[in-house]
Amino acid sequence: MAFTFAAFCYIVALILTAVLIFFAIFHIIAFDELKTDYKNPIDQCSSLNPVSETYYIYYMLSLIFFVFQLVLPEYFIHMLFTFLFLCSFQFGSLLFNLPLAVYHVHRYMTRPVMSSPGLYDPTSIMNADQLNRAQKEGWIKLAFYLLSFFYYLYSMIYVLVSSS
């Protein structure tokens, strides 16, 4: 068995796809949390305890901000191993990743105008249609990353066995 650059690219993609799976799971959990806690914070908290109202609002905003922090690393990781597939002439894997890479570029270029580099506007994310869209996007990405994980695993084994 010979260890080639293509095998290295598949190993890197396999490890980074596992990281992206965790990002997608967190994305789904965060938006599910926002969806199930879609209640008026004033109704949820007692007027006798203003600390709980402040904590609730702070919790929701920190959850949205944390999702903001995962957007650029997710896009960078996906573009990194897409570029590695281009450098190693693995055109099947490149074509497999190209639609999501194009979607990431399009999604980032058409994001709402904000001061932070995230994708979701904190003032409009609590709309039911925005939450459903964000949650559906998370499930689709999770399915894609799971499918690509097993595809990279198979491709890595195939490259390692066929190069001997």
UniProtKB/TrEMBL annotation:
Keywords, ordered alphabetically: Membrane, Transmembrane, Transmembrane helix
Organism: Lottia gigantea (Giant owl limpet)
Family note: Belongs to the cornichon family.
Cellular component per GO, a single term: membrane
A Pfam family of this chain: Cornichon
Membrane topology value: Multi-pass membrane protein
Cellular compartment(s): Membrane
Protein's name according to its UniProt entry: Cornichon
Main location: membrane
Tree of life domain: Eukaryota
Residue stretches spanning the membrane: 7-31, 56-76, 83-105, 142-161
InterPro entries linked to this entry: Cornichon (IPR003377), Cornichon_conserved (IPR033466)
BP term (GO), one: vesicle-mediated transport
